[in-house]
Specification:
Length: 335
């Protein structure tokens, strides 16, 4: 009972973090009809800055890490990317009033990774002085790309069967290329590469690090307003999408948390690293995933998968998922 009470108190304290406050604040002012707007160019610049900061730190830390300690979490990240889509294929896509390709695309988006949710989680971990492997940000593409590839392949197989087996075979490389060229993943990978091959510590310490929390707060505000704006889109599709968008992020995150705990026991993966793995599994892509799926599954309805992700999935992943995983890590592993 004492352990449960301790966990609930930790969970409640996490809900008071400024990161989550700005997200909820954006939703509230949008619900009240505010005409506040953040130009799209500024939003994209903020996302770029945040992911560059995360990537630079990750790249610098990868140089100090051993491949052996990274291998198991990377395998688990790939497994989660595929598993999330397969789960969605045989749950959401099988429900009444759900078009199969819409359900598969939604699962693909929820299997892919949100750079902004990752950045929010890192800010909370650092504010709580919870250590984590900075190289764990490199798990992003190991989950993101397999999820998008799996979704597009499964949707193509289904649509080919619907056409009586006629249709072109699925080409994997164009999907991978599209994912790698996405703005979010490009910024993160660029930061990792620069952190690996250059010495960016001076510019990182004097420029990227001091701006991180302020830029993240603005991003959370924008995401809150965007989430509320997408609610109307979600209302135009089956209500099962809203149910999935609440249940899926937490389910995926808890499965990944369990895998991370295995890595913690076997390889010493830190509690903070376990949280990072759970957060990226519980997130849903908000930047690079939608255009990849639009190109790969053109018959799927973006209102279904983008609406489910932005209006419900992302707020759940940030407001509930991050505090939940941190609370579990502190209760179970002393993080």
């Amino acid at each position: 009972m004492d352990a449960l009470l301790d966990f609930l108190m930790r969970f409640a304290s996490q809900l008071q973090s400024p990161t989550l406050g700005f997200l909820l604040g954006g939703m509230i002012i949008a619900a009240l009809g505010s005409r506040l707007e953040i130009p799209d160019a500024i939003y994209k610049f903020i996302v770029f800055m945040l992911l560059m900061k995360v990537g630079l730190k990750g790249g610098m830390k990868i140089r100090e890490a051993e491949l052996g300690e990274m291998l198991l979490p990377m395998i688990f990240a790939v497994a989660m990317g595929v598993l999330i889509v397969v789960i969605g294929r045989y749950t959401l896509a099988m429900l009444p009033n759900i078009k199969k390709e819409d359900g598969i695309a939604t699962a693909g988006l929820f299997g892919a990774v949100s750079g902004s949710t990752l950045a929010a989680a890192l800010a909370v971990l650092e504010s709580e002085n919870i250590p984590y492997e900075a190289w764990s940000v490199a798990l992003y593409p190991f989950m993101d790309i397999p999820a998008l590839v799996t979704a597009i392949v499964l949707a193509s197989i289904y649509l080919n069967k619907q056409r009586g087996g006629r249709g072109e075979s699925v080409r994997i490389w164009p999907i991978v290329k599209e994912s790698l060229q996405g703005s979010a993943l490009s910024a993160l990978l660029l930061g990792i590469a620069l952190g690996l091959i250059t010495n960016p510590a001076p510019v990182y310490d004097s420029f990227f690090e001091p701006l991180f929390r302020g830029l993240l707060s603005v991003l959370m505000l924008v995401m809150g307003m965007e989430a509320w704006a997408r609610v109307n889109e979600l209302r135009r599709v089956a209500h099962w999408y809203a149910v999935y968008a609440v249940v899926a992020p937490l389910t995926h995150g808890l499965i990944a948390f369990g895998l991370g705990w295995i890595a913690h026991v076997t390889t010493g993966f830190s509690p903070g690293g376990v949280v990072v793995l759970a957060v990226i599994a519980g997130s849903s892509s908000d930047i690079s995933g939608p255009p990849t799926l639009r190109a790969g599954i053109p018959t799927a309805n973006p209102s279904a998968y983008v609406g489910a992700s932005t209006a419900v999935g992302t707020p759940v992943a940030i407001a509930l998922g991050i505090p939940l995983y941190i609370g579990l890590a502190q209760a179970l592993m002393g993080g």
